[in-house]
Design a protein that fits this description.
The strands form two sheets. The chain has a six-stranded mixed sheet with strand order 1-9-8-3-6-5, with no helix packed on it. The protein is mainly beta. The chain has a domain at about 45-135 and about 140-145: Immunoglobulin-like (Sandwich). Helix content is about 10%, strand content about 25%. It has one helix spanning about 1-15, and strands spanning about 60-65, 70, 80-85, 95, 100, 105-110, 115, 125-130, 140-145. A hairpin with a 2-residue loop joins strand 5 (about 100) and strand 6.
Length: about 150
């Protein structure tokens, strides 16, 4: 009987294999993807650095530099529409509200601003139409843009 007890003790003494506990690994580091490099663009004068121009809406001509902000004066309460003179004449203002019959236009409210924005580098005069109460002068407006 003693041998049976010894055999039973040996069986009890046998240790069960230890199960490995799963260890939490820190999350894998995300690889940084290479961002496309920005190409240097020529610096243009921003709207904030341009000289504010304040011509009367009925003025037949005024002068400005490219990218100058323009705040027209004496705009009627209903606002005005500045329109490209013809399809062959460049339109000198941004933003462009839309097009009508292939001509660009900008609607300007009483306190609204536009920006002179042209691509020419030489001093050039750009014609535009004004749809407002400028008796007999609706179509004879222009801005002379200095280089």
């Amino acid at each position: 009987m003693a041998t049976k007890k010894k055999a039973a003790k040996k069986q009890k003494a046998k240790k069960q294999p230890v199960k490995k506990q799963k260890t939490k690994r820190p999350p894998a580091k995300k690889r940084k993807t290479a961002k496309p490099q920005k190409t240097a663009k020529p610096k243009l004068r921003s709207k904030a650095t341009g000289t504010l121009r304040t011509p009367d809406i009925c003025a037949p001509n005024f002068s400005a530099n490219n990218l100058d902000p323009v705040q027209f004066q004496s705009i009627p309460a209903i606002g005005v529409r500045l329109t490209q003179k013809s399809a062959t004449d460049p339109y000198p203002f941004t933003p462009v509200t839309g097009t009508y019959n292939g001509l660009s236009y900008t609607d300007v409210a009483t306190s609204g601003r536009v920006t002179v924005s042209v691509t020419q580098s030489a001093t050039t005069t750009y014609s535009y139409n004004v749809n407002c109460s400028c008796p007999g002068q609706e179509g004879s407006h222009s801005v002379t843009v200095n280089s």
